[in-house]
Known about the structure:
Distance between the termini of chain A: 41 Å
Number of strands of chain A: 11
Helix content of chain A: 40-55%
CATH architecture of the largest domain in chain B: 3-Layer(aba) Sandwich
Protein name (chain B): Phosphatidate phosphatase APP1 catalytic domain-containing protein
Pfam families (chain B): APP1_cat
Helix content of chain B: 40-55%
GO molecular function (chain B): phosphatidate phosphatase activity
Radius of gyration of chain A: 20 Å
Structural class of chain B: alpha/beta
Shape of chain A: globular
CATH class of the largest domain in chain B: Alpha Beta
Domain Phosphatidate phosphatase APP1 catalytic (chain B): 19-161
Distance between the termini of chain B: 74 Å
Oligomer: heterodimer
Amino acid sequence: MVGTQPQPVTIAFDVMGTDHGPAEVVRGAAMLSLESPHIHTLLVGDRTLIDDALAETKHNGERISVQHAADFIGMDEKPGEALARKPNASVAVAARLVAEGEAQALVSAGNTGAGVLACARHFQLIPGVRRAALATVYPTRSVRGAKGDPFSLILDVGATVEATADDLVTFAVMGSAYARIISQNERPKVALLSNGIEPQKGPPRVVEAHARLSEMKDIHFIGNVEGIDIPKGTADVIVTDGFVGNVCLKMLEGVHDTVVELAQYAYKESLRWRAGLAMLSSGIQRIKDITDWNQYGGAPILGFDKIFIKAHGRSKSRAIANAGKVAAKVVSNNLGAAIREGLKT
Amino acid sequence: MSLPDRIDPRPPRRIYRWDLDKTYLQTEFDSLRDLVRTAFQKAHQKVAVPGASALIRELSENGDSRLCIVSGSPKQMRAVLEEKLKLDGVRWDEFVLKDNVGNLLRGRFRALRGQVGYKLPAILESRVHAPVEAEEVLFGDDAEADAFIYSLFADLVAGRVDERVLSQVLEAGGVYPDDAERVREAWKKIPVGDPVRRIFIHLDRLTPPAHFTPYGPRVVPIFNYFQAALVLLADGHLTAPQVLKIAVEMVQTAGHNIITLSNSFQDLLRRGLPLQQAAVALSQALEGPNKLLAAMRPMPDILAAFSKRLAALGTPPPPPPVQAVDYVSLIHHALPRNHKGRSKPQ
Lengths: 345, 346
């Protein structure tokens, strides 16, 4: 008996400009070619570097193709200027290929700004969406959805610095649709980030968005949450503007790094602490596994008619492969249609 | 009384040598369970690698070739394997199987898994009877030592390997003295020539292609038999319509599609194989009237897919350089899998 075969989907990978170099992205795409027969990868970047890495890596050549791109944009370059100087940068070429239908989604672990800008130039905004939102995921204490997903979604974290009430409502619809697909969470809890849980707390745009979201039946809106609720996992989707979201995200990353550094310091400093950490090692490992962002792969830019998954700049091959899987899942579940549907209500 | 006219078959102009398991047949023998299941499979239960039987049939179309099969399967499986080949419409001229029971009874345990002492004498002895001018194309896989053995065979016949290196390889490969003697005897009988044109290695285990770089451009690792067909089109062994027939069979029976085929084409281009002319020939064949091609996608789509893959690369890379193969340093490629880790040079 033949089972239902998933529809083939092609994901374009911007291979260049990441912290670990092109080979790491190629290895991730190679991993994907072995694990997911229905996913084809289109590797965009320096052909020689890609071929050298592929030749050394176990992969399925039937599921990989290459598009040469002579230039790339580095992590430290200013996106606007760099894209103007390098129209054939890998991320721009990859976005163009997605726009032309050669691939259905783009994954990049390179310069975030350049990725967003390349998408803005080549993709169309979904009707009803004024500004795109950059989302990210953060591990929380509680899990959600059929898969027991420990990650909640926060958006926007930097694409739209000054969001209007309209934008915040749109972000809520988009975030809810995305969480439904990726976390297999039928009714994701959506909240606005504010300085208090009361409906009237926060700046006018937040208060107005609160009022409008409360009336939307298709969104499981649970009201406002505070910063403390992010790691708790009170909400599955947390909506805010790009300015606050970015500050929040950087602080969460800083806390995480500080905790890791403290643990390392404790391990080196005292034999007693080391023994204590050793006794906790399996628990610590479990927490590490649960909250390993490598497992998640990447976060989406929401609002465009095409999919862009932004992987972390430090992504290793596993994270890249998972970002590809996330992209394929989003494409297969037609996120664009879900967002359009959500915006009608 | 006059003798009746006798028409001898034409001497073969081309010899195609094939391995069976993992090259022609999708065989699993990585575990004892796999081995038992394989041993008891009926002919109709055995599955050929997509495109393999179509490729063999097309290669035999010209009528001036020989198909020689040397397989590591035990002799006891001859009946079922022959039946499978017949079911697939494959006609062979030689079919050598391994005498594993004989090896077991004689306590030759190294020979049970060793391939050099079995395949090398077998193909050299086969070559003894071939016309000097007959070209050879060999097909193997990455599960055992095919790339090593086939390359060594080619270089022995071409006089590029001397007695000293051969002795080192036979010793390091754990070849029994009588098999080593068979190798030397057959080798001495073969006139020096350079008949081996290509060695295709089917990447059943998806071994990274760079693993085969030391063997030079004669060895072509392939993900599927469409790739072999493309190279053989460029080498003049097949015509473009024959390649398309193979592609159609792969589309119809194995779920291949325009993406996998065009990716396979581009993969070879990126490895420096000169396929530009082959692409032109394919395009011309596609434009001709051929009902068979209706099984694939509309013609413009096929042409567009291949053209895009070609254009995506910019300037095609140069072909890889021809180089002498250092068999002594590669001997670990020739050892059974569980010995390889221990035998790798540090």
